[in-house]
Design brief:
Layout (H helix, E strand, L loop, with lengths): L1 H21 L13 E5 L7 E3 L3 E10 L10 E6 L6 E2 L6 E2 L15 E10 L13 E20 L17 E2 L8 E11 L2 E10 L4 E3 L3 H6 L14 E9 L2 E2 L11 E3 L4 E8 L8 E20 L1 E3 L3
Parallel strand pairs: 2-18
Antiparallel strand pairs: 1-3, 3-7, 4-6, 4-8, 5-7, 8-17, 9-10, 10-11, 11-16, 12-17, 13-14, 13-15, 13-17
């Protein structure tokens, strides 16, 4: 009798585990400080090559953040060499393959490769004994930051009352957001009938940020004149909402919605007046930022003439 009871219990445990394993696992996917990550595939290119050989560079591209990238959202360029010695490389770049970002049910972003093919011209004809360029791969792409935090709204912070408060306004950190531009902290300053927010933004990805838009994405190429001073270090504030209510008039934002970073950082100042009741409560604050991003990786190589 005891054996049969134990056997039934064992079956129940198995069924319970099987049910749990089939349930979708929702994870906190907004973490990390990267967008795109690039790596040279091993030996492509090799450290030493010879002239009159094919020149083949393969780069693995991985989406390490939460924004899905399509082929219209960016490109990878190869530069750093004399294009009369290494010829045939597409100076228009290669579009970044479509790469899915991380999501609630997607633990890893998409991975793919891009391949550059060229030809090494004769060095002996140019009386060159050795050519040692540094191959530079540059990614230019659009990305998005979505930051969400629970903030404390206190409509009457100076009221003399014994009522218990569920929260106290202060400075909070939303944590990393799976993007190279991060909302590092939000300072909440309450006053009667109005709450003020100081939203601190920082470039944490190690690359360069520039204005969001196709015209700026084109200028990011190392083969174009380049981005101007008035186009670098700008982030577009797409949306700031409290419980679905858009906060208008955040400053300092220009008429196109851009805020400028100084030394990689910026602060937004916003106000909210739509309080509910007289007691403090928690509500979600959502911030959406759009921007262009540029980052590079390098590999030194050596080219010698064929003996």
């Amino acid at each position: 009798m005891k054996k049969s009871v134990l056997f039934v219990l064992f079956l129940l445990v198995l069924v319970s585990c099987a049910r749990k394993s089939t349930e979708p696992q929702v994870t906190d996917f907004r973490y990390g400080t990267e967008g795109i990550r690039m790596e040279f595939v091993q030996n492509l290119p090799p450290p030493r090559l010879f002239d009159r050989e094919p020149f083949n560079v393969m780069i693995q591209v991985e989406n390490r953040g939460t924004t899905t990238i399509g082929q219209q959202d960016g490109a990878i360029f190869l530069s750093g060499f004399d294009n009369t010695i290494i010829t045939g490389i597409n100076t228009n770049g290669i579009p970044i393959p479509e790469l899915e970002g991380r999501g609630p049910f997607i633990p890893k972003g998409g991975i793919n490769v891009v391949n550059f093919k060229g030809v090494i011209q004769s060095l002996s004809g140019k009386r060159i004994d050795k050519y040692q360029p540094t191959i530079l791969a540059t990614a230019c792409y659009h990305y998005e930051t979505v930051a969400s935090a629970q903030v404390c709204i206190d409509p009457n912070p100076y009221a003399a009352t014994s009522q218990q408060r569920v929260c106290s306004p202060g400075t909070i950190s939303p944590g990393s957001q799976g993007a190279p531009i991060a909302v590092t902290s939000v300072q909440v300053d309450p006053s009667p009938g109005k709450t003020r927010f100081t939203i601190n933004i920082q470039n944490v990805g190690g690359g360069d940020v520039f204005k969001f838009g196709g015209q700026y994405l084109d200028k990011c190429s190392p083969y174009n004149p380049g981005l101007g001073f008035d186009e670098i270090d700008f982030v577009r504030v797409a949306d700031v909402t409290i419980s679905g209510t858009k906060l208008a008039g955040c400053k300092p934002v220009d008429n196109q919605g851009f805020v400028r970073l100084a030394n990689g950082m910026a602060s937004l100042y916003c106000e909210y007046g739509g309080m509910l009741g007289q007691s403090a409560y928690l509500t979600p604050l959502n911030i959406i930022l759009h921007y262009g991003y540029r980052q590079s990786i390098a590999r030194p190589i050596e080219i010698r003439p064929v003996a």
